[in-house]
Amino acid sequence: MNVKQKTIKAPVSVSGTGLHTGQSVTMTFNPAPENHGYKFRRVDIEGSPVIDADCDNVTDTSRGTTISQNGASVSTIEHVLAALVGLEVDNVLIDMDGPETPIMDGSSIQFVDAIKDMGLVEQDADREYYHIPYNIHYSEPDRKVEMVAMPLDDYRFTCMVDYNSQVLGSQHASISTISEFNKEIASCRTFCFLHELEMLLKHDLIKGGDLNNAIVVVDKEVDEEELAHLAKIFNRKDIKVAPQGILNNIELRHQNEPARHKLLDMIGDLALVGVPLRGHIMAARPGHAANVAFAKKIKALIKKERSRKHIKIYDPNAKPVYDTVQIMKILPHRQPMLMIDKILELTKSHVVGLKNVTMNEDLFRGHFPGTPLFPGVLQIEAMAQTGGILVLNTVPDPENYITLFLKIENARFKSPVVPGDTVIFHCSLIAPIRRGIAQMKGIGMVGDRVVVEAELMAQIVKRTKTEEE
Q1: Catalytic site residues (predicted)?
Q2: Cβ of 162: how many Cβ atoms within 10 Å?
Q3: pLDDT tens, 6-37?
Q4: Is 288 a catalytic residue?
């Protein structure tokens, strides 16, 4: 049974203060269309720039996760994204009138409650999961960070933290399925050590901190004078060290709340992969930088697999649109410079051509005769001739015109081409042809293997009498 995508029924807002900026901010979750994903919109900036929640847009992970795009940034996004993943929301546009999401109580629960109260609606499109195909590893040996994503037909998390602290020690947290997030993880608050709190205060980096939104772990000897100083800063009558080794500003919601919050952060950061995942994520000592690096590794694998899936395999024995004789009626090239043997497919926007590479071609007498390779420059020429058929197909009487190639960009040669290979060239227009100028993206393949790709620009020119003769 296919699972449908979901969005929120109607806009719903939450307001609060940014932890690090101290700025008041109102954040509004808006319904979004299918396949929209998660996006933030800075409505306080002229033009209301939109920022995609994408790991490639991450610009800072020092005190939370920050993304930037189109000249705008949004910081501390991980708790918001974790709430959306936990509720299995697919599409939402998040309006913000400030640079940082509200910290609320330091967890995701208030975001979860606001969205749940508004309700979700199913959309027509199916949710497309990415199933982890095999074990994907990530590590940072210097920080003793270890992460692995393993195949599983669900979304499961296991997290271990170890801070060399007598108070925290080693802690573990886990959920067996993402549906447990709301009950087990969403309410778990962020935490920091007392020495970190003092450093942040000294550098004026937690302007929105008020001791209601963080667990403060006391990892050093602290006297009454220092506690009195903290009480004054945070406008509290009395601050003590609780028996659990934390400041008594709040009570723990779970014995392993810090580990659970690290798991929450991980869920939020991995949302930046951009698609819902199916797999078991295990992590030791995760942090925002490692989470984002791991997300990028998974996204790169997804991109690679999707590019392969969208590659059509053509039958070289199928009846061609143009054979060699017909190609020569359109193109001015002749042996040994005619590089295309067949045109397999031709539309107004793309063309597919075929080149059989054989050992009896004259070029192999001089090009690495002991290890014959089809030259990359001639692969580009064959691609250009394929594109020329597409361009000339847009004018009446194409035999009266030629194509002059003006520019070649981003050419990449990914795999050797040798005698016996059949290269399929696919060229498609990047933009409509204007004033006889065509821009194309070309890919050359041998079987399901990409061997060359490039972007080409060509101009349609009428043949001269000399060329016609």
Answers
A1: 288 (proton donor)
A2: 14
A3: 999 999 999 999 877 778 999 999 999 999 99
A4: yes
